Amino acid sequence: MKADPAAQRRLLEVANVDSELNRINHRRRTLPELERIGAAEREVRTKQDALVAARTTLDDLQNEVDRLENEVEQVRSRQQRDRQLMDSTESSKQLEDLQHEMSTLSRREAALEDDMLEVMERREAQETEVSHAQRAVDAAESELEDARNARDEALADLESDEAKRLAERESLTGEIPQQLLDLYERIRQQRGAGAGYLQGGRCGACRLELDRAALASVREAAADDVVRCEECGAIMVRTKESGL
């Protein structure tokens, strides 16, 4: 294939733009903000799990308080009934039995109240634990939001750079013969780099040094010949600085 040397040099500019576009895509995939988001998301899940566990424990303690309060209420109702029976009974035997039961109920009431006080203290401590867990969740979610905002800002900058590069590429490719451009695109899709600057006997695409035979062949090629690297297949663009 033949192509005007100026068009070939323009192709090298396209290759430089494509390299920058590749770097932009690489940065987009490897943004440090993405790892920050991943870490923040894991932290949010961990803190949310801890909050759920803390709330479950608090609910269990509240249920225990409710149960004890209900039992105390039952004991007090029984005591009230016994008092009424004691006031109305004329049987000494029944009175003795009621007094014994009242004594038992009083001990039961005291034990229940002690248990309830202990559980209520644990509930109060657990409420503090729930508050701490909620604050930890809030802090983790705030960090996640900050990380996502930082990612969005970084992506916006990359998208802006990409748009500029794409506009520059479109302008450059409009000055290159379609046949040469098609060849460049095929090589780029297959090999990753479609063209490179030949300098110091090295291909600018793969950075490998050409052997003597390859260099001799390049020297003998006409200025408008499209020469390619035997190693990577890329178009080697020759300039006055190529040292041929």
UniProtKB/TrEMBL annotation:
Region (Disordered): 72-97, 123-148
Matches recorded under Pfam families: CT398_CC, Zn_ribbon_9
Domain C4-type zinc ribbon: 202-236
Gene3D superfamilies documented for this protein: 1.10.287.1490
Occurrences of domain CT398-like coiled coil hairpin (ranges): 14-192
Domain of life where this protein originates: Bacteria
InterPro entries according to UniProt: CT398_CC_hairpin, Oxidative_Scav/Glycosyltrans, Zf-RING_7
Residue stretches of biased makeup (Basic and acidic residues): 72-85, 123-132
Name of the protein in question: Uncharacterized protein
Species name: Actinopolyspora xinjiangensis
